[in-house]
Amino acid sequence: MAAIWKGSIAFGLVNVPIELRAAVRSDHISFRLLHKKDNTPVKYERVREDTRKEVPWDEIVKGYEHEKGEFVVLDDADFKAAAVEKSESVEISDFVDFDEIDPRFFETPYFSIPAKGGTKAYAVLREAMRQANVVAIGTIILRQKQHLVGLHVVGDAIIVDIMRFANEIVPASEYNFPAASEAKPKEIDMAMKLVDSLHGPFEAEKYVDQYRANLLRIIDAKSKGKKADLPVPAVERGDGKVLDLMAKLEASLKQARAPKAKAPAVKPKRATRRERRRTA
What are 3-22's pLDDT values in tens digits? Predict the structure, then answer.
């Protein structure tokens, strides 16, 4: 994949030249809106809310609704004035323990690839971070916008994670959660046994997007004028009785300990070249 950014990691007086490349890829199924009558594609248009007449691009400005129905219009000069000084480096300001960071702060990961002449410094930084078990916190200017970033080690790579700023995180105090005293010791003990029985290494390949797999089966079948043969999910229906948590935990534990028959893995259909282009 092509680099989306080229620059360096700067910590102290050391600069590590790098490129940022995608570490994840979207794998959703894209759909077009069609007219029901004859499957003609339908497109969106820019129209006024009052007259429904189309508006050309050269007559459109950007506005912020500071009160209901009241807008402040910003022009190119305003955006230019607000922009921070462009930098071609990830400026590291702190190193923190990974466990101190709420996972909600992490948004989009990228591989940082060492550029020419940067392999030794890259390796030194990576191994120092690995041994200290820390995350480097800094900022980056990406597509004319400043982002908070966290750098952490995964295998032989330094991952640069675009992070959310504190004002983007919803505080837990806005909601109500049950107190620890709500859970009885016997229930916790039984739940712990259930957790232990299901505990194991994380194997990403085990988890399949069944909805996506089903959609691909349906698309493939309909394209051939056939009906898709889909697996029938087991549906557990409530009996309307008050939940007996201990009984449910005991039944779950018994089920988890029972020998499992190996079901054939559901292998989703490989995305077409057109689908990969749409999601690239």
Answer: 889 999 988 888 899 999 99
Distance between CA 280 and CA 278 in Å, rounded?
A: 6
On the 0-12 / 13-18 / 19+ scale of CB atoms within 10 A, 241 is exposed
Please give the structure tokens belonging to residue 3. Answer: 């680099």
Q: The domain containing residue 117 runs over which residues?
A: 5-26+83-168
Task: Tell me the pTM.
Answer: 0.72
Q: CB–CB of 98/137 below 8 Å?
A: no
Q: Any idea what the CATH number is for the domain that residue 144 is in?
A: 2.40.290.10
Question: Whose CA is closest to 252, among 208, 187, 207, 205?
Answer: 187
Residue 112 in any domain: the answer is yes
Count of domains forming the chain = 2
Q: How far apart are CA 102 and CA 114, in angstroms?
A: 28
Instruction: Identify the DSSP state of 239.
Output: -
Residue 41 domain-assigned?
no
Report the percentage of the chain scoring pLDDT > 90. 48
Side chain identity at 74, as an amino acid letter? L
End position of a domain, from candidates 168, 190, 221:
168
Distance CA 123, CA 117 (A): 12
Quote the CA–CA distance of 141 and 163 in Å, as a whole number. Answer: 13
Question: CA–CA separation, 123 vs 218, rounded Å?
Answer: 48
Whether residues 11 and 113 fall in one domain: yes
What's the pLDDT tens digit per position in 38-63?
999 998 889 999 999 999 999 999 99
User: Does a structural domain hold residue 194?
Assistant: yes
Contact 123, 168 (CB under 8 A): no
Q: Is 150 within a domain?
A: yes
**20 in Cβ contact with 112 (< 8 Å):** yes
Residues 9 and 143 in one domain: yes
Name the amino acid, one letter, at 274.
R
Same domain, 247 and 122: no
